[in-house]
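Fill in residues.
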């Protein structure tokens, strides 16, 4: 969930140092020199993050896979310059060399964002553009309010739309899908 505070917009550009200088407990993302503050996630948001993360982690464990799942808060630096700092709701990273004590250096293989009312423009537009150009293989936008899951498979240049009644196949795996009808958020 991202909101730009009006009193903060007077500064032309921000850096990763500004992110690191935030007070404890305050979270924000940095995109193109602008800080986007993040609101506290809702109960439904957190349940979706937990349920989806669990299913992915369970699959990787059963297959003895090399990928790791990181729910937010987890830092993702999309480029070496550290001018894009994000905290995706769920990051799946298969290249262990990208994982450091600071977070992920480079693009995760798969990112899932759970939409909140304040994050809708960020998730559907700004982050979509950044993820598609940074080398993310797959990006899911899970929008509970709109009963929609958008699956962007950047490797195949495809977009699929699903509902919370559907089974959604992960493009980075041959035999994994999430049955959203089994996910209870209430």
């Amino acid at each position: 969930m991202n909101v730009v505070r009006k009193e903060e917009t007077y500064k032309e550009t921000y850096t990763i140092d500004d992110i690191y200088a935030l007070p404890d407990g305050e979270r924000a993302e940095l995109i193109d020199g602008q800080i986007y503050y993040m609101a506290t996630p809702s109960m439904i948001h957190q349940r979706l993050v937990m349920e989806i993360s669990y299913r992915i982690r369970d699959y990787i464990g059963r297959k003895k896979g090399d990928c790791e799942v990181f729910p937010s808060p987890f830092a993702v630096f999309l480029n070496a310059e550290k001018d894009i700092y994000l905290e995706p709701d769920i990051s799946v990273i298969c290249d262990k060399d990208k994982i450091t004590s600071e977070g992920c250096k480079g693009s995760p293989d798969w990112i899932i964002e759970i939409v909140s009312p304040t994050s809708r423009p960020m998730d559907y537009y700004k982050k979509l553009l950044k993820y598609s150009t940074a080398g993310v293989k797959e990006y899911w936008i899970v929008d509970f309010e709109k009963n929609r899951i958008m699956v962007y498979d950047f490797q195949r240049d495809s977009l699929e739309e699903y509902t919370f009644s559907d089974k959604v196949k992960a493009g980075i795996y041959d035999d994994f899908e999430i049955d959203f009808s089994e996910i209870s958020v209430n």
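Residues 40-182 form a domain with the tt1808, chain A fold (CATH 3.90.1570.10).
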